[in-house]
Amino acid sequence: MLRKLLSLLGAFALALTLGAAQAQAPAYPDRPIRLIIPFPPGGGTDILARLVASRLAEQARWTVVAENKAGAGGTIGIGEAVKAAPTGYELVMGQKDNLVIGPWFYKNLPWDPTRDLSAVAHVAYTPVLISTRADSPFKTLADVVAAARAAPGAISYGSPGNGTSIHMAGHLFAKAAGVQLNPIPYKGSNPALLDALAGNVHLLLSSLPSAMGQIRAGKLRPLAVTSAKRSSSLPDVPTVAESGFKDFDTSTWYGLFAPAGTPASVVQRINAEVNKLLVTADVQAAIHAQGAEPEAMSVEQFGQLLGADYAKWKDIVQASGAKID
């Protein structure tokens, strides 16, 4: 009898101890969150990351410190996030280029995005824009395809560089159209834009923000966007799919990731806060101003997108024959 009583008292004491520990456990977050941006300041990834950080400070009263860690096509910053403690206090703004395309170009990376990272919150996606100089004879994608069929390899397109989703969008379009295009990779968007304006390449493949100024100035003619839906920034410009290439859809997405092993409750908490801010009018307007489209996803949906794209792009990169110097 005494032994049973002692056992009950012990169980009761343990329950009280656990309950007290849970009651005293600090709510997440109780200190600043570091957000790694794996690209230099001023680019699309940097702008979106800092937008999320500032709005989380306003909406949730969180302190989010954004820090640029650029290099090797964004893979250095991702690598630093992978090595961080899985506590929810180290996040990274990843995107399609450095998570599902770059790993197939940069050999021997010590991390795998599907194994070493947890998808947390999708933020936005941006289509690739196909444009040409305003005085170009190409008025539609059909004109481009006709010219490419008449002279295989003669029609060139400029892109921000080998291994980018923009460069790969050109490869996929040529494959879908059954034509041979001549890819000209540049070291960044601006050199490609300048050569397109000079007439040194027939087409420019770029992000929308990179080209919008010259489109508004009447110096570039937009032909199509590569997303499944038209861009709200250029609602009169058709998609590639609408231009005769059914189901064509290739966009660059952006989102928050945490080291694998980050508690599910923390991941869900961040996801909920980010999704909440994505439906606010000012955040949507700020994202649209960058030529991007806000899109909220559940943790599960974003994880599925990461896994599906990572598997898909291995074959695309290998088939392209492109290499990073």
Summarize the structure.
The chain has twelve helices and ten strands. The protein is an alpha/beta fold and 325 residues long.
Describe the model.
Pfam families: TctC. Residues 1-23 form the signal peptide. InterPro entries: BUG, Bug_dom1. 46% of the residues lie in helices and 19% in strands. The protein is α/β, with parallel strands linked by helices and 325 residues long. The protein has 2 domains: 33-125 and 252-320, D-Maltodextrin-Binding Protein, domain 2; 127-225, Periplasmic binding protein-like II (D-Maltodextrin-Binding Protein, domain 2, 3-Layer(aba) Sandwich), CATH 3.40.190. Helix 7 (165-177) links the parallel strand 5 and strand 6. The radius of gyration is 24 Å and the shape is globular.
| CATH-scheme architecture of the largest domain | 3-Layer(aba) Sandwich
Number of strands: 10
Specify the biggest β-sheet: 10 strands, mixed
First-last Cα distance:
79 Å
Residue-averaged pLDDT, rounded?
A: 90
Number of domains: 2
**Low-confidence sequence ranges:** 11-18
Helix tally equals: 12
Whole-number radius of gyration? 24 Å
Compressed to H and E, one letter per element, the order equals: HEHEHEHHEHEHEHEHEEHHEH
Instruction: Name the structural class.
Output: alpha/beta
Shape: globular
Residues in β-strands, percent? 15-25%
CATH class of the largest domain: Alpha Beta
CATH topology value of the largest domain = D-Maltodextrin-Binding Protein, domain 2
User: What portion of residues is helical?
Assistant: 40-55%
CATH H-level superfamily title of the largest domain = Bordetella uptake gene, domain 1
